[in-house]
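User: What would this chain look like folded?
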Amino acid sequence: MTEAPKKRGRLFYKFLFVFLIVSLVPLGIVGYYLVNLSQVTLNRAISRDQEALAVGFSDTVSSYITNFRNVLFDAAHLEDFSSMNAGKQQALINHVMQLHAPFLELSVIDSGGQETVRVGRFVRDNKLRDFSNDALFGKVMKTGEFVGGLEKYMGSYPAITMGVQIVSSTTNQGTGVLIAKMSLTGLSSILKTGFPEVTHTQAAVIDTNGFLIAHSNLKEIYKPDAKLPDDILKILLQNDAKTGGGEIILDTGEKVLGAFAEVSELGWVVYIQRSVSVAYSASNEMLKRTRWMMLLVTVFVLILGYAVSLFITQPIHALREAAIKLGEGDFDYLPDISMPNDEIGELAHTFMQMSESLKVKTAEIMSAKEELERLNRSLENRVEARTRELKSAQDELIKKERLAAIGQMASVVGHEIRNPLAVINNSIYFIKTKFNASAAANPLDPKVTKHISIIESEIRQANGIIDEILGFARTRELNPKLTHLNAYMEDLMMSYPFPPHIELVKKLAPENPTVNIDTDEMTQAVRNLIKNGIEVMPEAGKIFVRTEVAGDMVRIDVEDAGPGIPKETLEKIFAPFFTTKARGTGLGLAVVKKIIDRHRGRVEVTSVVGKGTCFKLFVPLVTNNQNKQQYK
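Assistant: Here's the prediction, encoded as structure tokens.
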């Protein structure tokens, strides 16, 4: 029999309708308000930025003119100018013209109004002029300076006339006037650099009469009737505000965004203009993208509302049946049945029963699981601790058994080998005595002497091996005493027979630390390290002996410049009877470690193959307020 198609109940459509109303209506209202607010705010910000740009360029224009006025002012106050020496003034003016290209013409006028020096870039007639009745000359002599007099120099270049009073450095009185005509094309270059054509922005500077001083398009400057459009001039010249800006509709119908700012002290006006379509392009692009985003969000909300409604309502009936089964303890069955309407209340009641049952059972299971895990962890920790203790005890037992065996062996060696060695040594002494007595009559064969020396050397070698074995095996009571380390190390190094090919380098701690050591055993440890270092440098080398205070410990370094110890060997060097030498017992470093351990210290070693090895012996530091330490 064919299964009847599933129908969506009224709850689905109710939920979908409410979801869409709650989501889309506030979103649409807020989105519309925010989009318009953002556009208005952004357009205002763009207008303010353009106005700020006009203010900034007005300061630039003012600084440009002020800088060149200061050049004239500084020159006019030079002693060579105030002396009114025409030759010196001519040289200084030429120098100023070379340094500052904008100056087109410079003239010096004495206090009587007679021109004494005249230099110009395009002046062909060098005839000196009379300025006694000139208003500009009189104003400069009266006020000290003048900036104005805009004109088209030679009919092409916009220029300005400046004048400063020449002041005597001795009398501080005016002795003449320095007048200059300065080209303003530099301002146009500044505007062109700040507003290139690619920005679709025009900038200009005008005076109070509408005279076009500078323009970002240089072609505009060189026109005979160069000026801004009348509709723009009308707005700029009739406005009393220092700065301003906004949208302007030109006579051609084009809508532009304009901004202006007055140049301080000069009365000029900087005007910046951009097409509204260009100026508000970012705002329009933002509005366009926002609208697309709102559309996408609307579509997304529609899809999401449908999916959420379907997701929430579809499983309600199935969840009810599942809740009943789960409450009975059947966790494997999850029915897939069509969902009728208005079952949420019954589902909630049934689900609460199921959740309580699950809560109790789950709590019991989790409690039992946690207790089991805790017991497992406790058992594992105990097993690990006992295993470590067992292994440590086993290692200690093996070590004690080995030392006991070595002690028994050392006793046998000391008794059974040393006696024959003593007999051999006495016999050699007797033979040498006989040979020396008869040496005058019968000279001794050199080979015999050589072999006697070999026998003596081997006897010493054998005795040394016996001493090492006995020294490692025997454990006598430690006899520590307070010792000044520096004096002790000096005596030790002085008494050690260093070969001629070995250089000793020592550096002792300036604190002269005090340690509580058995000097006999510590001497044996340090001598063993020095002896090993000398043996690895048969031809030439250095032995470094250093002491240093390291916290609550004192460190004694014995370093050689030998071939170093490979990494795989470094881990075994303190093991008894381990050696890499052709001859030796392998007990030298084991004795060192045993001695330092008995002193409650530690041994560290660093080695670099091809550079050398450094042994570091750490022993406790004794401070002034500490009593003598007792060692067992």
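The two ends are 97 Å apart (CA to CA). If you want, I can go into more detail on any region.
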